[in-house]
From TrEMBL:
The chain crosses the membrane at residues 31-48. Residues 1-24 are annotated as: Disordered. Keywords: Membrane, Transmembrane, Transmembrane helix. It comes from the Bacteria. It comes from Candidatus Woesebacteria bacterium RIFCSPHIGHO2_12_FULL_46_16. This is Uncharacterized protein. Residues 1-23 have a biased composition (Basic and acidic residues).
Amino acid sequence: MNEEEKENKEEKVEEKEEKKEAKPAQGQNKLVMVLVIVAVVLAGLYFLGRTLSRKIGQGIAGRVLSGISGKNVNVDSGGEKVTITGEDGKVAFETGGNLPDSFPKDFPVYPGAKLVSSFSAKGEEGDGISVVWETGDSLDKVSSFYKKALTENGWKVESTFEQNGSFTSTFKKAETGGFVGATAEEGGKVTISATIGVK
C-alpha cells in the first residue's frame, strides 16, 4: 500500500467518525423539537380544558339551580365574577373589582379600604347588596369613622352593638336600610362589611 492510499483510508475513517458524531447531534435536535411540540400541545390542551370545564360547570350549575328552584336559571362566570339570572331577577358575585352599580353613592366607604368582594341581587321584592373591604387601620378608627360618617351623609343610625374585636351599626334612609360592621382579624387587619337592601 502506498502513501496516497494510506492517506485516503485515514481520511475516510475520519469522515465516518465525523458522521457518527453528527448523527447523535441531529438525533438530539429532533428530540428537542419533539419535546417542544409536545409541550406546546399539552399547554394548549390545558388552557382549552380550563375554558371547556368552566363552560361545562356553568351549564351544570344552571341545570342544578333550575331543578332546585323550578325556574329557568342561567349561570355566567367570567374571571372573578359569577352572574346567575333567573325568572325572578339576577344575582352577581364578584371578588375584587368594583362596587356594584346599585351601591348607594352617598354611603360612606372607609378611606383607603381595599374592596375584597361584592354581592348584588336584583329581584321583584327589591335589590340587595353586600360588600366586604379590608384595611390595615385599627377597629377603633373604623368604628369612629362610621359613627360619624353615616349621620353626616344623612343615614339614620338605628342601633350600634360593640363587643371585643367587633362593632355593628344598623342604619336607614327612606326605603334603603341595612347594617355595617367591622371585625379585627389576625395580623392587624380589619374586615369591614356592609349589607344594604332597597325596596
